[in-house]
Amino acid sequence: MARIFAVGLAPAARGGNRTGRVFTGDESSNNLMRALYDAGFADQPRSISRDDGLILRDIYLTASVKCAPPGNKPARDEVLRCMGYLVEEIKILERSRVFIALGQIAWQSLQLAIKRSLEATAPRYRFKHGAEHLVNTRARGPIWLMASYHPSPRNMRTGRLSHEMLLSVFKRARELANLVMR
Fold first, then answer.
1. pTM score > 0.90 for this model?
2. Superfamily of segment(s) 4-14+64-180
């Protein structure tokens, strides 16, 4: 069971929605998988299809919204309609102690889902790449909440996010998971 729980926005129309596996078959997945591979969480640097043999280690990937939204921009009510799924995923993955949001919408929905699923009393934190917050929860004790820009092609091409920046988030997540699990 994964100690690290990462949440993106939604399955991309030409990626996860087409392949049936989140962060698979598009440029965002290539950016993410390369970082996960370099950080030791994936056994290969690409996620091409559902049956490509990819094995993830100690990390769970999901999305805030479960279907591809129009224009890749979900309305607030879409995020809220899918919230129950995210809450249940968090409850089921009991070993998860580090939660990473990939993008601002994922950040907002992850905070709400943690509050609902783990009975956290933390304030709402502002999104900032590289942010990390220790959050006390009633259901699971201390957990870490981390933020990263989404590994979208736009963020990578403009330099808002680099491979090194993304890799450092996942390396830090492993360090925090090791601290919390002691």
1. yes
2. Uracil-DNA glycosylase-like domain (3.40.470.10)
